[in-house]
Structures are given as structure tokens and as C-alpha cells.
Here is the input.
Amino acid sequence: MDVSFTEEQQMLHDSIRRYLASDYPLEHRAKTIAGEDGWSADTWRALADLGLLALDIEEADGGIGAGPVGTMLVSQATGAGLLLEPFHSSAVLATRVISLLGQGERRTMLLDALASGDAVAVLAHDEDGGWFDARSTTAEPDGDGWRLHGRKARVYHAPMARWLLVSARTQDGSGVFLVERDAEGMELRALRTVDGQRAADIELDLHLPADARLGGEASAALEQALDHGLAALCADALGVLDRTLATTVQYTRDRVQFGTPIGRFQALQHRMADMYMQVEQARSMSYLATSACLGDDAQARREAVSGAKVVVGQAARRVGQEAVQLHGGMGMTDELDVSHCFRRLLAFELRMGTTDEHLRALHGLARAEAA
Amino acid sequence: MDLNFSPDELAFRAEVRAFVAAHLPDDIRDRVRRGDESQVADDLRRWQEILHAHGWGAVMWPREFGGTGWDKTRQYLFEIECAAADAPIQLPFGLKMVAPVIMRYGTPAQQQRFLPRILDGSDWWCQGYSEPGSGSDLASLKTRAERDGDHYVVNGQKAWNTLGQHAGWIFCLVRTDPAAKPQRGISFLLIDMRTPGIRLQPTRLLDGGHEVNEVFFDNVRVPVKNLVGEENAGWTCAKFLLGHERTNIAGIGASRRELARLRRMAGEAGRNGAPLADNPVFASRIAQVALELRALEVTNLRVIFGEARQQAPGPEASMLKIRGTEILQRITELQVEALGARALEYEGDGEDVPRAVGHYMNLRKLSIYGGSNEIQRNIIAQMVLQL
Ligand SMILES: Cc1cc2nc3c(=O)[nH]c(=O)nc-3n(C[C@H](O)[C@H](O)[C@H](O)COP(=O)(O)OP(=O)(O)OC[C@H]3O[C@@H](n4cnc5c(N)ncnc54)[C@H](O)[C@@H]3O)c2cc1C
Here is the structure.
């Protein structure tokens, strides 16, 4: 057991944190949100230059091979920086899917394009029926290729992607299919999410060539990639939680009412002490999820990841609400950090399976164990 | 003891229900139901005119000023019925805040000038209490009013001014004696928003909406006849105002309506085939909050009746405010949970999605304004528990 980080891992975390702290102020972010594209090509280039887009690619594939721990540390920083750019969608989730399923020249081509920042890819998995039942999209053999049919919901960063990796039910189980964003027969309805990001609902009814399928039966790989992505998303939320708590503590140090910094009121101190404990519990579960992604016990991983999603999600709710409350009226404004943190934490609760869905999944796991 | 309404009161409730059903315009009700605030000023004005035409413009005012003279129970039933029917709220600033102060402390001239225009909806009022540096600690306010002949000259800044962009008048607390103890040197002024030197700046909130403003006063000349009560005795008016209207502080009507909405949403929200309402975990969360609301309703009635006897709203009002806001906030959380991942799409065009999510974010304000819930807990600790 080792609960520390290597110097290299720490440096990775620090460098992205420093970059975002200096080059990614709220005003810049607000402009990006208001803009047409919803992301900044300059920021994306900078992330590529920092090597972050190759972070989760194995060294054998020409990447950095930082693995789940490195990904977690960087994700904390992207969360703390409230990053809008599709780091998580492209450099973590989609990259992981390709690493697990892609083969031959195409694998190299895709990973190179993602690592260099030349293109963005996203995994289109979520559907309206719920996270764990995202299976209404189907792929059937059709002539010499596939017929892909179904709908995906609220796919983060799909509007800025060149490729979509669409999960679908197949005769042999599950498959992942590579589709160009502009492919005929696929319609994207772009939307803005509550945390100011871009996503899309996707309608699919198209014919694909035989080699559009990445790898073969993909259930296990898909689950692994999703768990890995979830662990990273939890780390991102943890970064937001850190920022939320820090900004709240600082605010109550500075804000004077009744001739006293309000942070001196014991009632508020206790509330912040509780927030601190929530954040630390969330951190522990985020670490646990990441650690479980290192091993190959799929069930332990599932349990740790869903557990992290629940605990971090509950912390997101409470800490977000408390932070707004302790800021008083200022917490309600768009102007301060805290409202942006609040919205991102809300989005976290709802993304990649809600808190409730993961609780139910844990219940199912417990039952399966008992049987 | 009997916690049931009397036949008389039930008949009254039926009358209100029938009136609202017949007279609330469909377009207004639909906008309220959807949470569409795009025409809020117009909707509120129209609804006030309709109520006024029926003699129900001011249900909490005494008859002598054109109110209904209803007792607390009737006022309570009226508010609940209106909320349940998706009627717009009647903005409190004119009717429930400044009017009682003018009735109690205003001159006959002020009463004649201002009250009828509040009643028929021709004047829209807003509240100028808080300042950037003075929120919970209101008595530290700095906006100055200096006497110059028969005018006051006002300089300073107010914050968090709700819907002031539609207002013709603002009632303000201003400092008239900087040398006195904080609570002593404050006066209560009525200011015409069209006076030169007043500037509004919108504040964008968490949910993206514009419902509050900053208000800047730059040498604004206010006639001395717009002073209410005595100079430097404004704190008395302020306290009277804050302690005055208690029938609706618990927001029972709004909570009931949102609870009904939640139940409908849970009945529909089909994740994995089955409605959430069939999920025992979620159903028990709804049952829990419904129970808390029931307990609060009864507590509210106890306070209302107790108040009717004693004539003095006590610190129990703090309890109603805390519990009422916590319950309504909880209901909005559950609405977001009922939506699940669909709630991500805040800027969508469905009926429930933008409304429930916007509400959830916007109603965080309930525990902050009107005396934050922390301040209310301090009041309970000090005044009730004598700690
Ligand atoms: C949407 C909205 C609309 C509003 N509308 C109006 C309006 O129309 N007119 C108007 O005049 N004002 C209005 N307000 C202002 C409102 O009354 C203030 O926000 C409120 O009084 C709190 O003050 P503050 O925001 O300065 O918070 P602060 O006083 O700075 O408080 C910050 C935090 O510290 C806590 N705190 C402060 N003192 C203590 C203490 N002694 N013990 C324990 N905790 C404490 C508070 O509870 C809060 O959690 C509005 C506010 C909002 C958010």
C-alpha cells in the first residue's frame, strides 16, 4: 500500500494547476461559454503542449502512460480550474476506449490525432433510459457493414468532436462504432448544459462499413473504460470541491458583519468543518476508485467507482449548497467563483449516472454477492 | 382544540377557489406554471387589477384603507388557494411592507397619496435596505441623507434590489445622523425612482436571471415630506416592517404546489420502465418532506392563531421562515432528482426541465434573504431559548 504520489505525478498536477490558475481566469471562461463554439482552441493547444492529451495513452502507443493515478491528479486540477475544454471526454474517456479496443493502423492514427490535439473524440453512451441501461441503440449486420440505429442523450462535447464512439447492442453483446461527426444519417442537436458546457442529443440511423466496429465484443472493455472515466470525473468533482471549500473559507475570513469577520462565528465554523469532512470523504472515495482502476478485479472496481460517484455526489450537493449559503447574497451571483462551482457540482451529480442510479447499482452488487 | 377549519371557513375557501378558477387569465397561469418570468411585471399588475376590481386587492389591510379586513385564517386560506391555482404572488414590497408602515407611522397626506395607488396596482414598490457592506448587519448601513432646506440629499448605494427595474418607488433606510449609535441615526424615506441621480445596474444571478439590481444614489433630492415617522427613528419602522406580515412567511402555498408538481413528475419520470413514484426509496423521500410540510402547516396555524390572540408576532416567525424555506428547497431538490440526467439540459424547452432546475438554483436565495436562516436561528436561540 502506498498513499503518496511520485514526484512526477505531483509535478503533472501542479503544472496544469498553475497553468489554469494563471491563464484560465473566470472572465476568459465566461467569454468561452458565451461564444459560438463553447471551447477555446488556444486552451486546447496549450493542453496539448503540456502533454496532457497524451497523458492517458500508454508509452507503447507514444503517450505518457500516466495511468489512472496521473489521470486522477490532472483531473483534480481540471476540476479546480473549472475547465470547459473536452479533456475528460476526449483525452480520458474516448482515449481509453480506443486504447482498449482499437487495433492496427487505425488505433495509431486515432491516438495520434487525439494526443496532438488535432481532433477530439467522444464516447456516446448515455441514453434517456438511464446510465446502466444505455442499450437501446443497436447495431445489426447490414450487407457488408452495419446498420446503427438509436438515440444518445446529452453526450458531453459531441458538438466539438470529429469522431463519436457510439456504444450499441449487437448480436454478440456490445460494440463500439466509430462514426464521423458529420456522417449522413446522424443528427446532432447541440445543447448547453447547466454547467455551461456543450453537449448534444444524437439521433442515429445510418449504414456503416464493416470496419467501423472497434474491436469485437466490447462489454468488458466498455465497462472498464466507463469506470475509468467515472473515476476521473469524480476526481474532477473533487477538484471543484476543493476550490469551493477554499473560496468559502477565504470569503468568510474577509467578509465583515457586526464588526467581525463572519468566519469567527462558531455556527459558521462548524458548518465549514462539516464541509471539510465531506470533501475529505469524497477524496478518499476518489482515491479508492482510482486505485481500483489499477487492478483487474472488475467487480471490486465497479463497486469502488459507483461508491465514489455516490459519496462525491452527495458531497457535491451539500458542499455546493453550503458554499452559496455562507457567501450570502454574493453566493447567488454569477460574478463569484462559487456560483460556477455550484453549477458544475450539480452537473456532476447528474452526469454518467445519477447518485441514485449508482446507489441502486451498489444495491444490485451487494445482492449479487449474497446470492 | 380543533384543528379543522369551520364550515364558515370552508365555505370561504370554496369561494376563493371558484373566484380564482374563473378569473385568473389562462396565459398568466400558464406562465406561472412554466416558471416563465418574461412578462412578470405585466402579469403581476394585471392580476393585482383583477383582485382589486373584486375588492380583494389587499387581503391583509384593514377596511378603512380599502383592504378586505379579513382575519388571519382567511388571509391564510386565500394565499394557499392562489398559490395552488398557479396565480402569481402579490409582490410584498408595496402591499405587505411599505403599506403597513405608512398606515402606522405615515402622515394622513402620505396615506392618501400612496395607499390607493398600491391597492390598485398603479405604483410598484421596491425595497432599499441592504447595501454591499450591510446585509445581515443592516444597522451598519452607510447610505447618507443630508438635510438641505425642505429636501434630503441622498448619496450611497443599495444592493440586492428585487425587481427594482419595474418600480416607480423605493422605500429606503438612510443614515441621517452619522454621529449617533448605528440604530439611532437611521431614517425611513420614500423615494421616487424617477428622481435624477438614481441609477440601476442589474446583477446576474446563479440561474442566469435578472431579478435584482444595485441602485446608486448620486445627490438625489428627496422632499422632506417623504420621510415616514420621525427623523432618526427609521429603525422602528424597519423593525415593524420586518415583524409585520407573518401569515405567509412559511410559504405553505408554494410548498404545497411544488409538492403536487413533484408527485406528478415522479409519477411520470420513467427511468428503467417504472415511474420513480414506485421506487420505495424515492417515494419515502417524498413522504418525508410531505410530512415535514404537514407539521409546518399546523405549526403555522398555531402561530397564526396565537398571534391573533396576542397581537404580537413573536420569534416563532423565525421558525416558520427557517422550516418553510428548508422544506421548499428540499422539494426543489427532489424535483431535480426526479428529472435525473435530463436536468443537465437547463436551457432546454421542455416544461419541467428549465423550470425545476432554475427553481432549484434560484430558491437557494430563500435561506439567504429576509434575514438569513442563520440570523433566524440566532433569534430563536436568544429570544426563545434565552441563551
Ligand atoms: C435574490 C435576493 C433578493 C434580495 N432582495 C432584496 C431586496 O429587495 N431588498 C433588500 O434590501 N435586500 C434584498 N436582499 C438582500 C438580503 O436581505 C441579504 O442578502 C441578506 O440580508 C444577507 O446579507 P448578505 O448577503 O450581505 O450576507 P452576509 O450578511 O454577508 O452573510 C453571509 C453569511 O454569513 C452568515 N451570517 C452573518 N452574520 C451571522 C451571524 N451573526 N451569525 C451566524 N451567521 C451569520 C449569513 O447567514 C450568511 O450565511 C436580497 C438578497 C437576495 C439573494
Observations:
- The first helix of chain A runs from residue 7 to 23.
- The mean pLDDT of chain A is 95.
- Residues 85 and 185 of chain A are 27 Å apart (CA to CA).
